[in-house]
Every structure is written in C-alpha cells, then in structure tokens.
C-alpha cells in the first residue's frame, strides 16, 4: 500500500492543532471562504498585516524527541548544588504521591479558575484546605486562596493596611531585617503610589518620629538574617497610633513559634513554597495573605467560601466575587485577579499528608540541625551573630566570609554572602547530618564525623526563644489527620479530581482565556532536577542553561510581537500590565514630564487594565466604544485633546476585548503618540495575531503577553501564570530589574545596553524572583521550538477559523454581538443571549449551568457584556468536539423555545434546575415537568461519556452574606 492518509499527523503542529485539512475544508465552507489564508486576510485589517518573514530568530520546528534533547542539553548546563541560601526559598521534599497525582496530573493542571463552582468542587476543597492551613498556622481568622509570591503578598499587605488604617498619613514602617528582595519590590511599588517607607530595627523598635503618620508596619518573623525578635511591642505601639501591623511569617517556623495572630498582628503574609513546592529558580510558588477578624472584606485576590446548593447540600464557591478587579475597575484596590492555585493545592496537600505532628517533627528537626550547625561553626572559631534563630544561622568570619562561601560552593553547597565579614547558612528539611559534616570541614572544624553530627542533631537544643514558643493548636480539622497512608492520600486526590471538569474531560470554550492543549512533552521538563532544584539566587555559573533558555524566549517573543526587548519577570498577566505601565511612568519622569499621569482606557477593557493603571500612580479616563465594540475614534481624539500635556498612555487590547480586529488601530496609536503619550497594547489576545501582525509594528510601545494562554502554560485551576512584558528600546531601561539577577543587564539600576541584541532592564522588580516563575518556562520554550514560526502561524489561522465556524453555525440561534469586516470575528465570538432571555425568561446563568448536563464547561459569562457568552474554541479542539458544542447550544436553544411555547413551566424545566446530579434524578419521586432522561441525557451519546456534577446549583448570595472560609466541620456534610 502506498501513499498516506490525508489526516496523518506528521509534525507536532499537526498534533497540537485539532482540526485536520479535511475538517478545515468543511469549516471554511460553513464560514464562506476559500482558504485559511483568505479567511485571515479578510479578518485582519490589511493596514497591519505583516509581510512574510524572510528571516526568523525562531528556528525551524523539530519533533518532540529532538526538542527534549535540546532542552536536556540546556538543563545540563545548570549545576544543582545543595541550596542553603534561604532568604525565603528552601529545599523541600515533594511527596511522590503529590508530584504524581497533582503536579503531573492533567486533571489538576489543565483545570480553569473555579468561577463555575458546581464543576470545581475538588479544587475548591483543596483551596479551602490551603486557607485553613494558613489561617491556623498564622493564628488569623481568614486566609485567601493564595497570592503570587511572598514579595507581592507584602505589597498587598501594605496596601490593605493603608485602606484599613485609621491613620491618614502616607508612611509605612519597614523592618530592617525584611527579606532583601521583598524590600526592593516594596520600594518600587510604594514609590508609584506615594507611600514613604521608614526603616527601623526590630530590636529597638521604631522611634516616635517614625511612628508619627505611619499607617502600618511590616515585620519579618523570623528575620531575613534568621534572627527571631518578639514583634509584639512594635505591634502594640503601631496599634496605639491607629495603624495596622503586617507580619511576614515562615509557615514551617509557625509550628514551633507563637503565631502572628497570637502576638496581635492584623495581617500575616508569606510563602508556602517550603511545603513541598520545588525551588524552581524562584517560582511559581503560592504566596499567602491572611487577616484578623474584621478585615475579611479587605482581602485582595481570591477567597473560597462555603454555601449550599439547591438541595441544601453544603458546597464551596469563590466568595465576595464583587472584589474581582474586572468588576471594580478603577475603584479596585488591587490588580491581582488570579492566584497560584496549582501550587497552593500542592502546599495544602503537603499539610494534609504530614498533618500537624508531621509538620512539627520536620520543623523541630530543622531547628535542631540549625542549632547543631551553629555549634560546629563556633567550634571552628566562627562568631554567631544571633543567638535566637529557627533555620538560618548568621556567622561572622572576619575578612574570610567570601573565601568560606567559595569553599562551600566547591564542596557542593550554596551559602549567602552578606559582606566581607558575614555569611548565612539556611537549613531545611532536606539538610542531613552529612551536610553538616561537610560544612564543618569547610568552616575548619576538626574531627567532626557524620555519626557525631547525627548525635549532635538528635541531642541539640533549639535556639528558639522560650517566651515565643507556640502554645495554640493548629490543623485540628480531621482532613489533616485522615490521609496518612499513601493509599488514602492517592484516593483522596483522585476523589477530588473526579469532582472537577478540566481540559482532560472536554473542551473549555472560555472566551478571553484560551484553554488549549498543554502537551505532555511541553510539561516533561518541569520536574527535571536541573530546573526544579535551583535556587533563584544561585550564582550565574550554576544557571547558564536557565539563562540560555530565557534568552531564547526573550528573543523569540520580541520577534513575534515586533518589540526590541522582553522581560520574563512578571509572574501573572496583571503584573505584566503593571510592569509596562510602571515603565511608561518611569520614561515620562526621566523626560521631566511629571504631570503625565492620565491613562486612557476603553470602556470594553478588562478591569485589570484600570486597576493596574491606578497602582502605577496613574489616573484613569474612560474612552467610549461604538455600537460595534470598537474604540470610538472621535471620543478618543476628544479625550486626547482634553488632557493634552497630562496624557501618559492609552491601554488598548488587540484584537479587542469584544473579539474583533479594529480597523482604526493605527489611527488610534498615532493620535496618542502625537500628543506625547505611549501606547500600551494588552497582549491577552496575541493568539489571534501570531505570524500575521505584530503589536510593535502598528504602534505599540509596550505590551504584556500571557504565556498561560497563547504559549501553552497550563492554567492550573487558576494559576500559575506568566505575563512577560515586551517593549520598544526607549522603555527598556524602565522594565523590571532585580537586585539578585544573575545577568548584569537585568539588575535594578542597570541602564546601559549589553551586546547587540539585549537591552538593559534597570527598573524596580515586580516579582520576588529575578525571572518570576522560570520553572514553567520550559513549557513555552518547548512549544515554540516544536511549532516554529510556521506552526505558530497555522495555530492562529486554526483558532480564527474555529471561532468563525462556531459563530456561523450558531448565529441564527444566538446573535453574534460584535463582528468586523465581512461579519468575521477574531479568535472568539460573543453570543447574545439577551433576546432569548427576553422571550423565554431563560438567563445566561441557566444556559451556563445547563451546559454542564451536556458535558461542557460554560463559556465566559457576561464579560465583556452582561447577558452574553464569549466563546473561544482554540486551535486545539477537533471538529467533532466543536460540533458537539454547537449541538449542545442548539439543543439548549430548543429547550428555551419549549419554555416559551409553554411546554415546560417557567419555574420547572431542565434549564432552571440545571445542573442535575446523579442523586437528584434517582432519589425519591420524580415530580418535574420533564423526564429524568431529558435532565441528564439530553442528546444521544452523552451516556457514554457522562460527567456528573457533585452538587446542584449553588446559592451565591448566601455564601457572601454568611462568610465561612475555612474547612467546615464534618457534621456539615451530613
């Protein structure tokens, strides 16, 4: 037999793109275009279409085996030493049952943010475990569902303190022993919003002058140097003046030390990284933020709470969703609209697996090991700087500190050099007596053997202050004692995963969110030791492979966006937005334009745009949109003329938030530039442009990208994300730098170009680690390497075709709200359900919940227009899955019509009662106007792949009125 099937997949791009050439021919016929190229050229304005590339920095695509071999070579250029640098990053053992069943499990990493709680009960339960763990260990009333990292959590704590404080001043007190990377981040963020930082020594406390006009304080506990100081007296003095006390606390240390809440703190912040989450060169890790009673409604980010479903069964949901930044817009108090869900799940399961006794055992062993290490160092003649510490020992070695740190590195250990006389050694759960023995020899101790070290660790007395030893209980809920064996843990994780709908079950057609394939080959390198076990402050010589991969990505992303330089530091899209706006602000200040503070934002924009502008110190002015969803060019020109010399920037999403390619985009950019402003193009929808147009070519000065959308990093149930910022060269000096960046041109304060391709990034940091969340960058590197520029271009074409196919097939049943030229959309379409609602009473909520019965995650609800569904099929879905979704939507429209005709009562039909659980259709008498089969098997074929939601429709309002955000007692499930 000769020849081959026309549907044979021969490259990675063929496997990534779900539709075959034959499928695409069928779809093009439905849309009414001859070819993919003709479709895309008709949709994208001719004025911005890029000429075919004659040369690309992106190499030709290779297969999966070849890509992994190249990545292995890069990983081999990283040297994995035992990291004892500390500073908020610690070695940890990820329990294999958690690595295999969470981190490496698509049921967890391909899930979306739990906005649809009925199909998210598993990850919501895992997050409420996280909240309970954090609240218990910190002694606080309520904890959020995770923050981006410790540094940004401290910033959010500062902003919360300013909101909640009775003090009207703009001063914030800062512990001199704050982690240095946190201090750098705090400096940068405080400056943008007019907050003055006042540093003090935690031993003596702030002076009366420093307290005057201070709305709050941040204390590190234990300190960055390892020192433990009782913060209660400082907290009392801050409270006496009406201020708010924030404590950055080590969760493992809190198993032994008095909790911040017990000492009077109002807010606790920090990281959960050492609870089983690999170092990963700095991330992603789940930060945390918790508050005392009375501050719950001031929390930024996400909060999981408890409510009840239609049958009175207890259920979880996201609480206080009105705090979401896309709702509050310029009134937002934070731009954080995401979390680090996957990492929070890992940390929570680490606590579930070990329980309170296990965590305390680990902490005591760490503390004893640190004490034994201090003893051998003193025997070697080194001075002990602090007598009270948990895991970090600061040592004095006059004029020899550098030599000792170098010797330790030669022996395979990374220590932290403070100055010529001082260095730090941080112990963690991975530190063994053998490690202490090796370091003892490095320090100059004689006759120290491993058996002696083992005995010393076993018999050591911890150096914790007796007055600060913990007395309160923690992790008393049964969930933290019920899963000790691996069998029980494996089954618990499977039980939770089975409750949820993730990409491994079917299409998640979320507009604006791009839930595409996260290929197994792309994910493979995340857990390689050469990427997972590297400290973010390791010396450059140890991370050449990482830096090489980062350089590749910066170069490739700059090319496809038309910019000159890229920073990968922002660890979420919101942080990429903020970084770009801070760069614009820095640029204007450098030119003496202090008055340029107005940021123009279209009314259709995602709410984080406005929130980010406020946090960058800008004033938001809204620009109107026309009836087609485009920026109103006349209104834009009027706003530009009105604000003149105060105009700083325009933020515009392209394609628009309405899913349309705006034809006036060049004129829009020109109008802003002519007035001296900068253009920020929100890159959330870059997947509709790749290979066909570039932001930097049609007028963009800076953009953020979403690697968790366009470039295949999984959403992980609501995080991790990576939001790189790309810019023209004139903004490069103001992009995020970092004091610990291994590359000299990526350090805060660097302002000169290095080499022909790289521009220096000298601005302040926006994330705690120099390169944000680098351990997941191999995902994007592998995706681009296997796709090549041609594959990326094909992906764009397939995505645009998929959206237009769905729009064409559903247009008669559900009007498509916005379209561009020839009635075409970009990569997503907005279906208008309001006419159906007006005719039948069936709402967008009813349709979203009914889709669950049909085996689908709902599209994006009521954004950017209330009463609509925004659908994005992505390029990864095949035609059969697209048709299955179309059939479901058409069937739902027919059901609504049956209600309209009176065949089903308005209050008793399968739409208003959706979703239906298994128990709801088998328990008791069936008294509904529709049949059981119509409830749960509305279309042929569903029975063979039926997804059963664990709960029925959840009462959202009850959960907000009765805020419960920790693990409920077992009786609640009865």
From TrEMBL:
For this UniProt record, the keywords arranged alphabetically read as follows:
Oxidoreductase, Pyridoxal phosphate
Q: Where is the composition biased (Polar residues)?
A: 1-12
Q: What is its EC number?
A: 1.4.4.2
Q: Which positions carry N6-(pyridoxal phosphate)lysine?
A: 709
Glycine cleavage system P-protein N-terminal domain ranges (all copies): 14-443, 480-746
Q: Which cofactor does it need?
A: pyridoxal 5'-phosphate
Catalysed reaction equations from the record = N(6)-[(R)-lipoyl]-L-lysyl-[glycine-cleavage complex H protein] + glycine + H(+) = N(6)-[(R)-S(8)-aminomethyldihydrolipoyl]-L-lysyl-[glycine-cleavage complex H protein] + CO2
Q: Which Pfam family, giving just one, matches this sequence?
A: GcvP2_C
Q: Output one GO MF annotation.
A: glycine dehydrogenase (decarboxylating) activity
The protein's superkingdom reads Bacteria
Q: Return the annotated region ranges for Disordered.
A: 1-21
**Which Gene3D superfamilies does the record cross-reference, listed alphabetically?**
Aspartate Aminotransferase, domain 1, Type I PLP-dependent aspartate aminotransferase-like (Major domain)
Domain Glycine dehydrogenase C-terminal per the UniProt entry, residue ranges: 795-916
Task: Write down the top EC class of this protein.
Answer: oxidoreductase
Q: Which InterPro entries match?
A: GcvP, GDC-P_C, GDC-P_N, GDC_P, PyrdxlP-dep_Trfase, PyrdxlP-dep_Trfase_major, PyrdxlP-dep_Trfase_small
Tell me the protein family, please: Belongs to the GcvP family.
Read off the PANTHER family from this record. GLYCINE DEHYDROGENASE (DECARBOXYLATING), MITOCHONDRIAL, GLYCINE DEHYDROGENASE, DECARBOXYLATING
Describe the protein's quaternary organization and the partners it interacts with. The glycine cleavage system is composed of four proteins: P, T, L and H.
The task this protein performs is described as: The glycine cleavage system catalyzes the degradation of glycine. The P protein binds the alpha-amino group of glycine through its pyridoxal phosphate cofactor; CO(2) is released and the remaining methylamine moiety is then transferred to the lipoamide cofactor of the H protein.
Q: What is this protein called?
A: Glycine dehydrogenase (decarboxylating)
- In its UniProt entry, the species of origin is given as Curtobacterium pusillum
């Amino acid at each position: 037999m000769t020849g081959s099937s026309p549907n044979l997949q021969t490259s990675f791009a063929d496997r990534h793109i779900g539709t075959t050439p034959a499928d695409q021919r069928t779809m093009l016929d439905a849309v009414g275009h001859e070819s993919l190229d003709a479709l895309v050229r008709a949709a994208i304005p001719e004025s911005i279409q890029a000429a075919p590339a004659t040369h690309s920095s992106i190499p030709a695509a290779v297969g999966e085996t070849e890509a992994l071999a190249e990545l292995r070579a890069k990983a081999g250029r990283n040297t994995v030493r035992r990291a004892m640098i500390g500073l908020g990053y610690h070695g940890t053992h990820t329990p294999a049952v958690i690595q295999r069943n969470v981190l490496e499990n698509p049921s967890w990493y391909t899930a979306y943010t739990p906005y649809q709680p009925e199909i998210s009960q598993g990850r919501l339960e895992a997050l409420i475990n996280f909240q309970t763990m954090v609240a218990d260990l910190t002694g606080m009333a309520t904890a959020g569902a995770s923050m981006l990292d410790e540094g940004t959590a401290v910033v959010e704590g500062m902003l919360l303190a300013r909101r909640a404080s009775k003090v009207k001043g703009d001063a914030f007190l800062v512990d001199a022993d704050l982690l240095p990377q946190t201090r750098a981040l705090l400096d940068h963020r405080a400056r943008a919003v007019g907050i003055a930082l006042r540093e003090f020594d935690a031993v003596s406390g702030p002076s009366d002058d420093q307290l005057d006009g201070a709305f709050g304080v941040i204390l590190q506990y234990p300190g960055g140097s390892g020192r433990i100081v009782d913060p209660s007296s400082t907290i009392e003095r801050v409270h006496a003046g009406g201020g708010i006390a924030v404590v950055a606390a080590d969760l493992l240390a809190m198993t032994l030390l008095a909790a911040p809440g017990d000492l009077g703190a109002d807010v606790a912040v920090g990281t959960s990284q050492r609870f089983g989450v690999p170092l990963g060169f700095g991330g992603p890790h789940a930060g945390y933020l918790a508050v005392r009673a009375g501050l719950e409604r001031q929390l930024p980010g996400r909060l999981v709470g408890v409510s009840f479903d239609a049958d009175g069964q207890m259920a979880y949901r996201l609480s206080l969703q009105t705090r979401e930044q896309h709702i509050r817009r310029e009134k937002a108090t934070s731009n954080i609209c995401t979390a680090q869900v996957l990492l929070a799940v890992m940390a929570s399961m680490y606590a579930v697996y070990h329980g309170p006794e296990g965590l305390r055992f680990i902490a005591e062993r760490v503390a004893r090991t640190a004490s034994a290490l201090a003893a051998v160092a003193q025997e070697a003649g080194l001075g002990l700087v602090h007598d009270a510490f948990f895991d970090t020992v600061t040592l004095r070695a006059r004029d020899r500190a550098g030599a000792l740190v170098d010797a330790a590195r030669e022996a395979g250990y990374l220590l932290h050099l403070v100055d010529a006389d001082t260095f730090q050694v941080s112990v963690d759960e991975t530190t063994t007596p053998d490690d202490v023995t090796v370091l003892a020899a490095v320090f100059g101790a004689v006759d120290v053997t491993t058996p002696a070290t083992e005995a010393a660790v076993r018999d050591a007395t911890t150096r914790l202050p007796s007055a600060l030893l913990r007395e309160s209980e923690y992790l008393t809920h049964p969930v933290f004692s019920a899963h000790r064996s691996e069998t029980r843990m494996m089954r618990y994780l499977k039980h939770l995963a089975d409750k949820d709908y993730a990409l491994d079950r079917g299409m998640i057609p979320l507009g604006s969110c791009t839930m595409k394939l996260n290929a197994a080959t792309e994910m493979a390198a995340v857990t390689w030791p050469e990427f997972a076990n590297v400290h973010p402050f390791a010396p450059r010589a140890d991370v050449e492979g990482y830096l090489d991969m980062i350089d590749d990505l910066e170069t490739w992303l700059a090319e496809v966006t038309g910019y000159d330089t890229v920073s990968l530091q922002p660890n979420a899209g919101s942080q990429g937005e903020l970084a770009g706006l801070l760069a614009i602000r820095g640029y204007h200040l450098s030119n003496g334009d202090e008055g340029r503070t107005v940021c123009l934002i279209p009314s259709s924009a995602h709410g984080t745009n406005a929130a980010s502008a406020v946090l960058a110190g800008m004033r938001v002015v809204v620009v109107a949109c026309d009836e087609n969803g485009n920026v109103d060019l006349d209104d834009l020109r009027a706003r530009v003329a009105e604000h003149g010399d105060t105009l700083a920037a325009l933020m515009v999403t392209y394609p628009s938030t309405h899913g349309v390619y705006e034809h006036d985009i060049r004129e829009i950019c020109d109008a802003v530039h002519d007035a001296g402003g900068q253009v920020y193009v929100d890159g959330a929808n870059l997947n509709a442009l790749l290979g066909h147009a570039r932001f930097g070519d049609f007028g963009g000065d800076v953009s953020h990208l979403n690697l968790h959308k366009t470039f295949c990093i999984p959403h992980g149930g609501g995080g991790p994300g990576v939001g790189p910022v790309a810019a023209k060269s004139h903004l490069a000096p103001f992009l995020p730098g970092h004091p610990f960046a291994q590359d000299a041109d990526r350090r805060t304060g660097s302002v000169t170009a290095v080499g022909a391709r790289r521009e220096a990034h000298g601005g302040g940091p926006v994330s705690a680690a120099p390169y944000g969340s680098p351990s997941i960058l191999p995902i994007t590197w592998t995706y681009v390497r296997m796709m090549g520029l041609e594959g990326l271009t094909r992906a764009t074409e397939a995505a645009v075709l998929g959206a237009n196919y769905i729009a064409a097939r559903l247009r008669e049943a559900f009007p498509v709200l916005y379209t561009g030229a020839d009635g075409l959309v970009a990569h997503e379409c907005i279906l208008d359900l309001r006419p159906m609602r007006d005719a039948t009473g069936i709402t967008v909520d009813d349709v979203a919940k009914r889709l669950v019965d049909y085996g689908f995650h709902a599209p994006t609800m009521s954004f950017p227009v209330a009463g609509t569904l925004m659908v994005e099929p992505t390029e990864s879905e095949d035609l059969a899955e697209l048709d299955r979704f179309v059939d479901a939507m058409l069937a739902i429209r027919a059901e609504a019509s049956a209600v309209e005709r009176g065949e089903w009562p308005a209050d008793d039909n399968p739409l208003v009662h959706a979703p239906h659980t298994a128990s709801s259709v088998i328990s008791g008498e069936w008294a509904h106007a529709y049949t059981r089969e119509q409830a749960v098997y509305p279309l042929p074929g569903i029975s063979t792949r039926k997804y059963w939601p664990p709960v029925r429709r959840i009462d959202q309002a009850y959960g907000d009125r009765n805020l419960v955000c920790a693990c409920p007692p077992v009786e609640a499930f009865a």
